[in-house]
Design a protein that fits this description.
Blueprint lengths: L7 E5 L2 H11 L3 E6 L3 E6 L2 E7 L14 E4 L3 H9 L7 E4 L4 E6 L5 E5 L3
Parallel strand pairs: 1-4, 5-8
Antiparallel strand pairs: 2-3, 3-4, 6-7, 7-8
């Protein structure tokens, strides 16, 4: 019945700040956009749609996912992110690789990890 996923959506209170974080700071490219409503990025192969809150389908909080992004080296990724003004909230080593937590402008956790 289902062929594949179409997109994953998250909600923001401020599209400008969210776009600055996902596109300018993290470096993902915009693949689709409707100004004042949403933008879609290619987040390492994931079609991530960032929607402006509307109190209908697009509500901030509770049901939004945690986004995990795989990198070769957490320390190198954190160094590059720090140069763009983004600091890790926490870092840890699982024994399978390091991971760190950063936050998007809406406070949503974004996990940077060396392992799947």
């Amino acid at each position: 019945m289902f062929e594949r996923y179409s997109f994953v959506a998250i909600t923001t209170l401020d599209l400008y700040r969210a776009r600055s974080f996902w596109v300018d700071a993290l470096g993902f490219s915009v693949t689709e956009e409707k100004a004042g409503h949403f933008f879609i990025i290619d987040a390492g192969g994931l079609r991530l749609c960032v929607d402006l809150a509307d109190d209908e389908i697009h509500k901030v909080g509770g049901s939004d996912p945690v986004i995990g992004l795989k990198v070769q080296s957490v320390s190198e990724a954190l160094r590059r992110l720090a140069s763009r003004g983004i600091q890790a909230e926490s870092t840890s080593d699982t024994g399978r690789g390091n991971y760190a937590t950063i936050r998007d402008p809406d406070g949503r956790a974004v996990i940077i990890t060396e392992s799947d």
